[in-house]
Amino acid sequence: MKKNLRIYNITRYLADALAILVAYMVTLLIHFGNFGTGFNGAFLALSIVFWYVLSQVSKLYADRRSNKFSEEIVFITYNTLLLAILLSSALFFLDLTTIYTPRFFWAFLGNIFVAVAAIKYLLRKSVHAALNQGKLYDKILLVGSTPSAVNYYETINKYYYYGYQCVGLIDEQPAKINGCKYYGNISTLGHVLQTEFIDEVVIALPNSDYTNIQLCMEICDYNRTKVRLLPDLQQYASSSISVDNIGMMPTISVRELPLDRWQNKLLKRGFDITFALLVFATVGVVLFPIIALFIKLTSRGSVFFKQERWGLNNQRITCYKFRTMVQESNDVDKDGQYLQARKNDPRVTLIGKFLRKTNLDELPQFLNVLLGNMSVVGPRPHPTPLNIASMHTVDNYMLRHIVLPGISGWAQVNGCRGETRNPGDMQRRVDFDLYYIHRWTFWLDCQIILQTVINIIRGDQNAY
Protein backbone atom coordinates (compact mmCIF):
# COMPACT_ATOMS: atom_id res chain seq x y z
CA MET A 1 0.00 0.00 0.00
CA LYS A 2 2.77 2.47 0.94
CA LYS A 3 4.43 1.97 -2.44
CA ASN A 4 1.14 2.46 -4.29
CA LEU A 5 0.35 5.55 -2.26
CA ARG A 6 3.80 6.95 -3.01
CA ILE A 7 3.21 6.40 -6.74
CA TYR A 8 -0.22 8.04 -6.42
CA ASN A 9 1.24 11.14 -4.72
CA ILE A 10 4.01 11.46 -7.32
CA THR A 11 1.39 11.16 -10.06
CA ARG A 12 -0.65 13.99 -8.50
CA TYR A 13 2.36 16.32 -8.67
CA LEU A 14 3.46 15.35 -12.18
CA ALA A 15 -0.10 15.54 -13.50
CA ASP A 16 -0.35 19.21 -12.50
CA ALA A 17 2.85 20.03 -14.38
CA LEU A 18 1.36 18.33 -17.45
CA ALA A 19 -1.89 20.27 -16.97
CA ILE A 20 -0.02 23.60 -16.85
CA LEU A 21 1.95 22.66 -19.98
CA VAL A 22 -1.25 21.76 -21.82
CA ALA A 23 -2.94 24.97 -20.65
CA TYR A 24 0.02 27.03 -21.88
CA MET A 25 0.13 25.38 -25.31
CA VAL A 26 -3.65 25.68 -25.76
CA THR A 27 -3.50 29.37 -24.83
CA LEU A 28 -0.68 29.95 -27.32
CA LEU A 29 -2.66 28.17 -30.03
CA ILE A 30 -5.81 30.18 -29.37
CA HIS A 31 -4.05 33.53 -28.98
CA PHE A 32 -1.35 33.32 -31.66
CA GLY A 33 -2.67 30.55 -33.93
CA ASN A 34 0.39 28.33 -33.41
CA PHE A 35 2.66 26.96 -30.67
CA GLY A 36 5.90 28.69 -31.74
CA THR A 37 4.91 32.33 -31.65
CA GLY A 38 5.15 33.76 -28.15
CA PHE A 39 6.59 30.61 -26.57
CA ASN A 40 8.83 31.42 -23.60
CA GLY A 41 10.43 28.55 -21.72
CA ALA A 42 11.35 30.69 -18.72
CA PHE A 43 7.74 31.84 -18.25
CA LEU A 44 6.44 28.26 -18.52
CA ALA A 45 9.05 26.99 -16.03
CA LEU A 46 8.22 29.78 -13.58
CA SER A 47 4.52 28.98 -13.89
CA ILE A 48 5.15 25.37 -12.86
CA VAL A 49 7.60 26.29 -10.08
CA PHE A 50 5.28 28.97 -8.69
CA TRP A 51 2.38 26.49 -8.75
CA TYR A 52 4.28 24.00 -6.59
CA VAL A 53 5.64 26.66 -4.22
CA LEU A 54 2.21 28.19 -3.69
CA SER A 55 0.68 24.76 -3.13
CA GLN A 56 2.55 24.69 0.18
CA VAL A 57 0.62 27.80 1.21
CA SER A 58 -2.77 26.68 -0.10
CA LYS A 59 -2.30 23.04 1.01
CA LEU A 60 -3.40 21.95 -2.44
CA TYR A 61 -1.83 18.50 -2.16
CA ALA A 62 -3.32 17.52 1.19
CA ASP A 63 -4.97 14.10 0.99
CA ARG A 64 -8.65 14.78 0.24
CA ARG A 65 -9.73 11.35 -0.99
CA SER A 66 -12.48 11.26 1.63
CA ASN A 67 -13.70 14.82 0.93
CA LYS A 68 -16.05 16.09 -1.74
CA PHE A 69 -14.57 17.22 -5.05
CA SER A 70 -16.07 20.69 -4.52
CA GLU A 71 -13.53 21.20 -1.70
CA GLU A 72 -10.69 20.35 -4.08
CA ILE A 73 -12.04 22.87 -6.61
CA VAL A 74 -11.98 25.56 -3.93
CA PHE A 75 -8.31 24.88 -3.21
CA ILE A 76 -7.50 24.83 -6.94
CA THR A 77 -9.19 28.24 -7.23
CA TYR A 78 -7.21 29.54 -4.26
CA ASN A 79 -3.90 28.33 -5.71
CA THR A 80 -4.77 29.79 -9.13
CA LEU A 81 -5.50 33.22 -7.60
CA LEU A 82 -2.17 33.16 -5.76
CA LEU A 83 -0.47 32.14 -9.01
CA ALA A 84 -2.01 35.15 -10.76
CA ILE A 85 -0.27 37.49 -8.31
CA LEU A 86 3.19 35.96 -8.78
CA LEU A 87 2.89 35.50 -12.54
CA SER A 88 1.86 39.12 -13.07
CA SER A 89 5.14 40.09 -11.43
CA ALA A 90 7.04 37.57 -13.57
CA LEU A 91 5.60 39.12 -16.74
CA PHE A 92 7.03 42.48 -15.73
CA PHE A 93 10.51 41.20 -14.84
CA LEU A 94 10.74 39.04 -17.99
CA ASP A 95 9.57 42.01 -20.09
CA LEU A 96 6.70 40.01 -21.58
CA THR A 97 3.88 42.46 -20.92
CA THR A 98 3.77 43.57 -24.55
CA ILE A 99 3.58 39.97 -25.87
CA TYR A 100 1.37 38.45 -23.21
CA THR A 101 -1.60 40.80 -23.08
CA PRO A 102 -4.11 40.76 -20.19
CA ARG A 103 -6.41 38.73 -22.42
CA PHE A 104 -3.68 36.08 -22.89
CA PHE A 105 -2.77 36.16 -19.19
CA TRP A 106 -6.30 35.54 -17.88
CA ALA A 107 -7.01 32.97 -20.59
CA PHE A 108 -3.88 31.09 -19.48
CA LEU A 109 -4.98 31.12 -15.84
CA GLY A 110 -8.47 30.00 -16.83
CA ASN A 111 -7.05 27.13 -18.86
CA ILE A 112 -4.82 26.14 -15.93
CA PHE A 113 -7.85 25.97 -13.66
CA VAL A 114 -9.84 23.86 -16.13
CA ALA A 115 -6.94 21.53 -16.94
CA VAL A 116 -5.92 20.96 -13.30
CA ALA A 117 -9.53 20.46 -12.17
CA ALA A 118 -10.16 17.96 -14.98
CA ILE A 119 -7.04 15.92 -14.30
CA LYS A 120 -7.66 15.87 -10.53
CA TYR A 121 -11.21 14.69 -11.15
CA LEU A 122 -9.94 11.84 -13.33
CA LEU A 123 -7.36 10.89 -10.69
CA ARG A 124 -10.04 10.95 -8.00
CA LYS A 125 -12.29 8.66 -10.02
CA SER A 126 -9.42 6.27 -10.72
CA VAL A 127 -8.60 6.14 -6.98
CA HIS A 128 -12.25 5.46 -6.10
CA ALA A 129 -12.34 2.70 -8.73
CA ALA A 130 -9.17 1.16 -7.26
CA LEU A 131 -10.63 1.31 -3.75
CA ASN A 132 -13.82 -0.30 -4.98
CA GLN A 133 -11.68 -3.16 -6.32
CA GLY A 134 -9.93 -3.58 -2.95
CA LYS A 135 -6.74 -1.73 -3.89
CA LEU A 136 -4.97 1.29 -2.34
CA TYR A 137 -6.39 0.65 1.12
CA ASP A 138 -4.52 1.58 4.29
CA LYS A 139 -4.58 -1.51 6.52
CA ILE A 140 -5.82 -0.48 9.97
CA LEU A 141 -5.47 -2.35 13.26
CA LEU A 142 -7.96 -1.19 15.87
CA VAL A 143 -7.00 -1.25 19.56
CA GLY A 144 -10.00 -0.96 21.89
CA SER A 145 -13.73 -1.48 21.54
CA THR A 146 -15.09 1.79 22.95
CA PRO A 147 -18.13 3.47 21.34
CA SER A 148 -15.67 5.70 19.46
CA ALA A 149 -13.97 2.58 18.08
CA VAL A 150 -17.30 1.11 16.93
CA ASN A 151 -18.28 4.38 15.27
CA TYR A 152 -14.88 4.61 13.55
CA TYR A 153 -15.10 1.02 12.30
CA GLU A 154 -18.62 1.44 10.94
CA THR A 155 -17.71 4.73 9.26
CA ILE A 156 -14.71 3.43 7.31
CA ASN A 157 -16.70 0.35 6.27
CA LYS A 158 -19.63 2.43 5.05
CA TYR A 159 -17.53 4.96 3.15
CA TYR A 160 -14.99 2.78 1.33
CA TYR A 161 -13.56 5.78 -0.53
CA TYR A 162 -11.99 7.02 2.70
CA GLY A 163 -9.33 4.46 1.86
CA TYR A 164 -9.14 2.50 5.12
CA GLN A 165 -9.70 -1.17 5.80
CA CYS A 166 -9.78 -2.56 9.35
CA VAL A 167 -8.01 -5.94 9.40
CA GLY A 168 -8.61 -6.73 13.04
CA LEU A 169 -9.21 -5.75 16.65
CA ILE A 170 -7.11 -5.94 19.81
CA ASP A 171 -8.68 -5.46 23.23
CA GLU A 172 -8.12 -6.60 26.79
CA GLN A 173 -11.46 -8.38 26.76
CA PRO A 174 -12.60 -10.63 23.89
CA ALA A 175 -14.78 -8.35 21.77
CA LYS A 176 -16.61 -8.43 18.47
CA ILE A 177 -17.40 -5.42 16.30
CA ASN A 178 -19.62 -6.51 13.42
CA GLY A 179 -17.43 -9.46 12.51
CA CYS A 180 -14.06 -7.67 12.87
CA LYS A 181 -11.33 -10.29 13.51
CA TYR A 182 -10.21 -10.44 17.14
CA TYR A 183 -6.42 -10.87 17.55
CA GLY A 184 -6.24 -11.01 21.33
CA ASN A 185 -5.26 -8.67 24.16
CA ILE A 186 -2.75 -5.83 24.11
CA SER A 187 0.18 -8.16 24.88
CA THR A 188 -0.20 -9.61 21.35
CA LEU A 189 0.17 -6.22 19.61
CA GLY A 190 3.90 -6.58 18.95
CA HIS A 191 3.47 -10.07 17.48
CA VAL A 192 0.61 -8.88 15.21
CA LEU A 193 2.69 -5.97 13.89
CA GLN A 194 5.58 -8.33 13.10
CA THR A 195 3.48 -10.99 11.37
CA GLU A 196 0.77 -8.90 9.65
CA PHE A 197 1.09 -6.04 7.17
CA ILE A 198 -0.33 -3.06 9.10
CA ASP A 199 -0.14 0.54 7.81
CA GLU A 200 -1.57 2.19 10.88
CA VAL A 201 -2.70 1.38 14.41
CA VAL A 202 -5.74 3.26 15.70
CA ILE A 203 -5.79 3.36 19.50
CA ALA A 204 -9.34 3.78 20.80
CA LEU A 205 -8.93 2.87 24.46
CA PRO A 206 -10.74 4.76 27.25
CA ASN A 207 -9.00 8.02 28.18
CA SER A 208 -8.47 6.73 31.72
CA ASP A 209 -6.44 3.74 30.48
CA TYR A 210 -3.27 5.79 30.20
CA THR A 211 -0.90 2.89 30.96
CA ASN A 212 -2.10 0.73 28.06
CA ILE A 213 -2.26 3.70 25.67
CA GLN A 214 1.38 4.50 26.45
CA LEU A 215 2.35 0.82 26.08
CA CYS A 216 0.67 0.56 22.67
CA MET A 217 2.43 3.71 21.46
CA GLU A 218 5.82 2.34 22.57
CA ILE A 219 5.19 -0.97 20.79
CA CYS A 220 4.19 0.87 17.60
CA ASP A 221 7.25 3.11 17.81
CA TYR A 222 9.49 0.04 18.19
CA ASN A 223 7.90 -1.54 15.10
CA ARG A 224 7.93 1.76 13.17
CA THR A 225 4.18 1.70 12.66
CA LYS A 226 2.12 4.86 12.32
CA VAL A 227 -0.22 5.56 15.27
CA ARG A 228 -3.51 7.44 15.42
CA LEU A 229 -5.22 8.19 18.74
CA LEU A 230 -9.01 8.15 18.84
CA PRO A 231 -9.76 9.82 22.19
CA ASP A 232 -13.20 9.89 23.75
CA LEU A 233 -13.95 13.53 22.90
CA GLN A 234 -17.31 13.15 21.21
CA GLN A 235 -18.72 16.04 23.23
CA TYR A 236 -16.27 18.29 21.38
CA ALA A 237 -16.66 16.63 17.97
CA SER A 238 -18.35 19.63 16.41
CA SER A 239 -16.10 22.20 18.13
CA SER A 240 -12.94 23.75 16.79
CA ILE A 241 -10.27 22.26 19.02
CA SER A 242 -6.49 22.19 18.95
CA VAL A 243 -3.86 20.35 20.98
CA ASP A 244 -1.25 22.60 22.59
CA ASN A 245 1.54 22.06 25.08
CA ILE A 246 2.35 23.79 28.35
CA GLY A 247 5.86 22.50 29.01
CA MET A 248 5.56 18.76 28.48
CA MET A 249 1.85 18.68 29.31
CA PRO A 250 -0.60 18.49 26.36
CA THR A 251 -3.74 20.62 26.63
CA ILE A 252 -6.89 20.74 24.51
CA SER A 253 -8.01 24.23 23.53
CA VAL A 254 -11.60 24.89 22.47
CA ARG A 255 -11.30 27.97 20.30
CA GLU A 256 -13.67 30.93 19.94
CA LEU A 257 -16.15 30.86 17.08
CA PRO A 258 -14.70 32.20 13.82
CA LEU A 259 -17.78 34.36 13.24
CA ASP A 260 -17.31 36.06 16.63
CA ARG A 261 -14.51 38.09 15.01
CA TRP A 262 -15.67 41.33 13.40
CA GLN A 263 -13.33 40.84 10.41
CA ASN A 264 -15.01 37.55 9.53
CA LYS A 265 -18.48 39.01 10.09
CA LEU A 266 -17.64 41.89 7.74
CA LEU A 267 -16.24 39.54 5.09
CA LYS A 268 -19.26 37.24 5.25
CA ARG A 269 -21.78 40.10 5.17
CA GLY A 270 -20.00 41.77 2.24
CA PHE A 271 -20.00 38.51 0.33
CA ASP A 272 -23.69 37.91 1.13
CA ILE A 273 -24.76 41.30 -0.24
CA THR A 274 -22.59 40.98 -3.37
CA PHE A 275 -23.73 37.44 -4.11
CA ALA A 276 -27.42 38.24 -3.54
CA LEU A 277 -27.28 41.28 -5.86
CA LEU A 278 -25.54 39.19 -8.54
CA VAL A 279 -28.26 36.52 -8.27
CA PHE A 280 -31.04 39.11 -8.65
CA ALA A 281 -29.22 40.83 -11.53
CA THR A 282 -28.57 37.62 -13.49
CA VAL A 283 -30.61 34.53 -12.66
CA GLY A 284 -33.38 36.44 -10.88
CA VAL A 285 -34.19 38.75 -13.77
CA VAL A 286 -34.89 35.76 -16.00
CA LEU A 287 -36.31 33.15 -13.63
CA PHE A 288 -38.47 35.21 -11.26
CA PRO A 289 -41.13 36.23 -13.82
CA ILE A 290 -41.13 32.79 -15.47
CA ILE A 291 -41.57 30.92 -12.17
CA ALA A 292 -44.23 33.40 -11.02
CA LEU A 293 -46.17 32.91 -14.26
CA PHE A 294 -46.11 29.10 -13.99
CA ILE A 295 -47.25 29.21 -10.36
CA LYS A 296 -50.21 31.45 -11.24
CA LEU A 297 -51.16 29.32 -14.26
CA THR A 298 -51.06 25.97 -12.42
CA SER A 299 -52.70 26.76 -9.06
CA ARG A 300 -54.73 29.33 -7.20
CA GLY A 301 -53.15 31.61 -4.64
CA SER A 302 -50.20 33.92 -4.20
CA VAL A 303 -46.85 33.45 -5.91
CA PHE A 304 -44.86 33.74 -2.68
CA PHE A 305 -45.10 31.74 0.52
CA LYS A 306 -44.22 33.45 3.81
CA GLN A 307 -43.47 31.46 6.94
CA GLU A 308 -42.27 32.30 10.44
CA ARG A 309 -38.92 30.76 11.23
CA TRP A 310 -36.21 31.23 13.84
CA GLY A 311 -33.11 33.18 12.98
CA LEU A 312 -30.11 34.57 14.83
CA ASN A 313 -30.48 34.37 18.62
CA ASN A 314 -33.90 32.69 18.24
CA GLN A 315 -35.45 35.85 16.77
CA ARG A 316 -38.53 35.30 14.64
CA ILE A 317 -38.03 36.10 10.97
CA THR A 318 -40.30 35.93 7.94
CA CYS A 319 -38.80 33.51 5.42
CA TYR A 320 -39.79 33.98 1.76
CA LYS A 321 -40.16 31.17 -0.77
CA PHE A 322 -41.99 30.48 -4.01
CA ARG A 323 -45.24 28.72 -3.14
CA THR A 324 -44.96 25.01 -3.94
CA MET A 325 -48.10 23.70 -2.24
CA VAL A 326 -51.78 24.24 -2.85
CA GLN A 327 -53.13 27.35 -1.17
CA GLU A 328 -55.47 25.35 1.10
CA SER A 329 -52.76 23.06 2.54
CA ASN A 330 -52.35 22.86 6.32
CA ASP A 331 -49.07 23.08 8.23
CA VAL A 332 -50.32 21.01 11.17
CA ASP A 333 -52.37 17.84 11.50
CA LYS A 334 -55.51 17.34 13.61
CA ASP A 335 -53.32 16.62 16.67
CA GLY A 336 -51.42 19.88 16.27
CA GLN A 337 -48.22 18.18 15.01
CA TYR A 338 -46.22 20.02 12.34
CA LEU A 339 -46.57 18.38 8.91
CA GLN A 340 -43.20 18.27 7.20
CA ALA A 341 -43.09 17.86 3.44
CA ARG A 342 -42.71 14.16 2.64
CA LYS A 343 -42.13 12.12 -0.47
CA ASN A 344 -45.12 12.21 -2.86
CA ASP A 345 -46.80 14.77 -0.62
CA PRO A 346 -50.29 15.43 -2.08
CA ARG A 347 -50.07 19.08 -1.00
CA VAL A 348 -47.23 19.79 -3.45
CA THR A 349 -48.26 21.17 -6.83
CA LEU A 350 -46.90 19.96 -10.16
CA ILE A 351 -44.67 23.01 -10.62
CA GLY A 352 -43.87 22.81 -6.91
CA LYS A 353 -42.27 19.38 -7.34
CA PHE A 354 -39.91 20.81 -9.94
CA LEU A 355 -39.10 23.88 -7.83
CA ARG A 356 -38.34 21.77 -4.77
CA LYS A 357 -36.24 19.28 -6.72
CA THR A 358 -34.10 22.06 -8.18
CA ASN A 359 -34.12 24.28 -5.05
CA LEU A 360 -35.52 27.13 -7.14
CA ASP A 361 -38.27 27.64 -4.56
CA GLU A 362 -35.55 29.11 -2.29
CA LEU A 363 -34.64 31.97 -4.69
CA PRO A 364 -36.79 34.60 -2.89
CA GLN A 365 -34.70 34.01 0.24
CA PHE A 366 -32.00 36.16 -1.33
CA LEU A 367 -34.33 38.98 -0.32
CA ASN A 368 -33.89 37.76 3.28
CA VAL A 369 -30.14 37.94 2.70
CA LEU A 370 -30.37 41.58 1.60
CA LEU A 371 -32.60 42.34 4.60
CA GLY A 372 -29.86 40.94 6.84
CA ASN A 373 -31.82 38.19 8.63
CA MET A 374 -30.32 35.36 6.56
CA SER A 375 -26.97 34.52 4.97
CA VAL A 376 -26.20 32.74 1.71
CA VAL A 377 -24.62 29.90 3.73
CA GLY A 378 -25.54 28.83 7.24
CA PRO A 379 -27.78 26.42 9.18
CA ARG A 380 -31.16 26.15 7.44
CA PRO A 381 -33.89 27.94 9.43
CA HIS A 382 -36.70 25.68 10.61
CA PRO A 383 -40.39 26.57 11.04
CA THR A 384 -41.41 27.51 14.59
CA PRO A 385 -43.34 24.26 15.34
CA LEU A 386 -40.33 22.16 14.26
CA ASN A 387 -38.02 24.19 16.49
CA ILE A 388 -40.31 23.74 19.47
CA ALA A 389 -40.58 19.99 18.82
CA SER A 390 -36.79 19.56 18.50
CA MET A 391 -35.38 21.86 21.17
CA HIS A 392 -36.05 19.36 23.99
CA THR A 393 -35.23 16.14 22.11
CA VAL A 394 -32.09 17.00 20.12
CA ASP A 395 -28.76 17.69 21.85
CA ASN A 396 -27.41 21.23 21.41
CA TYR A 397 -30.27 22.08 19.08
CA MET A 398 -30.54 25.75 20.08
CA LEU A 399 -26.81 26.34 19.46
CA ARG A 400 -27.49 26.36 15.70
CA HIS A 401 -29.11 29.79 16.19
CA ILE A 402 -25.93 31.55 17.32
CA VAL A 403 -25.20 32.50 13.69
CA LEU A 404 -27.40 33.74 10.87
CA PRO A 405 -29.38 30.96 9.14
CA GLY A 406 -28.57 30.28 5.48
CA ILE A 407 -30.18 29.43 2.18
CA SER A 408 -27.89 26.42 1.95
CA GLY A 409 -25.69 24.80 4.57
CA TRP A 410 -23.12 22.14 5.41
CA ALA A 411 -25.87 19.76 6.54
CA GLN A 412 -27.77 20.11 3.26
CA VAL A 413 -24.79 19.41 0.97
CA ASN A 414 -24.02 16.34 3.11
CA GLY A 415 -27.43 14.80 2.45
CA CYS A 416 -29.39 16.09 5.47
CA ARG A 417 -32.39 17.36 3.57
CA GLY A 418 -36.07 16.62 3.50
CA GLU A 419 -38.18 15.08 6.23
CA THR A 420 -36.71 14.42 9.68
CA ARG A 421 -38.80 11.47 10.83
CA ASN A 422 -37.05 10.90 14.14
CA PRO A 423 -34.72 12.77 16.54
CA GLY A 424 -31.73 10.88 15.10
CA ASP A 425 -32.24 12.50 11.69
CA MET A 426 -32.44 15.94 13.25
CA GLN A 427 -29.45 15.23 15.50
CA ARG A 428 -27.30 14.42 12.48
CA ARG A 429 -28.38 17.68 10.84
CA VAL A 430 -27.57 19.66 13.98
CA ASP A 431 -24.15 18.00 14.27
CA PHE A 432 -23.29 19.14 10.74
CA ASP A 433 -24.55 22.65 11.54
CA LEU A 434 -22.37 22.86 14.65
CA TYR A 435 -19.37 21.58 12.70
CA TYR A 436 -19.90 24.44 10.24
CA ILE A 437 -20.31 27.06 12.99
CA HIS A 438 -17.09 26.05 14.75
CA ARG A 439 -15.02 25.60 11.59
CA TRP A 440 -16.29 28.43 9.41
CA THR A 441 -13.98 29.84 6.76
CA PHE A 442 -14.69 31.88 3.66
CA TRP A 443 -13.45 28.97 1.57
CA LEU A 444 -15.85 26.58 3.30
CA ASP A 445 -18.71 28.88 2.27
CA CYS A 446 -17.41 28.80 -1.32
CA GLN A 447 -17.25 25.00 -1.19
CA ILE A 448 -20.85 24.75 0.08
CA ILE A 449 -22.12 27.09 -2.64
CA LEU A 450 -20.30 25.08 -5.30
CA GLN A 451 -21.58 21.77 -3.93
CA THR A 452 -25.12 23.20 -3.83
CA VAL A 453 -24.90 24.08 -7.52
CA ILE A 454 -23.58 20.58 -8.29
CA ASN A 455 -26.46 19.02 -6.33
CA ILE A 456 -28.98 21.17 -8.23
CA ILE A 457 -27.59 19.97 -11.56
CA ARG A 458 -27.19 16.35 -10.45
CA GLY A 459 -30.41 16.19 -8.46
CA ASP A 460 -30.92 15.38 -4.78
CA GLN A 461 -32.95 12.31 -3.83
CA ASN A 462 -33.93 13.96 -0.52
CA ALA A 463 -35.32 17.07 -2.23
CA TYR A 464 -39.09 16.70 -2.36
Structure explained in plain terms:
The longest helix is centred in the middle third of the chain and has 37 residues, at 262-298. The chain has three domains: 2-132, no CATH class; 138-232, 3-Layer(aba) Sandwich (Rossmann fold), CATH 3.40.50; 260-458, no CATH class. It is built from 14 helices and eleven strands. The protein starts with a helix and ends in a 6-residue tail after the last helix. It has helices spanning 2-32, 41-58, 69-93, 102-132, 147-158, 189-195, 210-222, 262-298, 350-358, 365-371, 384-390, 410-413, 423-438, 442-458, and strands spanning 138-143, 164-170, 182-184, 200-203, 226-229, 241-246, 249-254, 304-310, 316-322, 375-377, 406-408. With 464 residues, the protein is α/β, with parallel strands linked by helices. The chain has a five-stranded parallel beta sheet, with helices on both faces. Strands 6-7 form a two-stranded antiparallel ribbon. The protein is globular, with a radius of gyration of 26 Å.
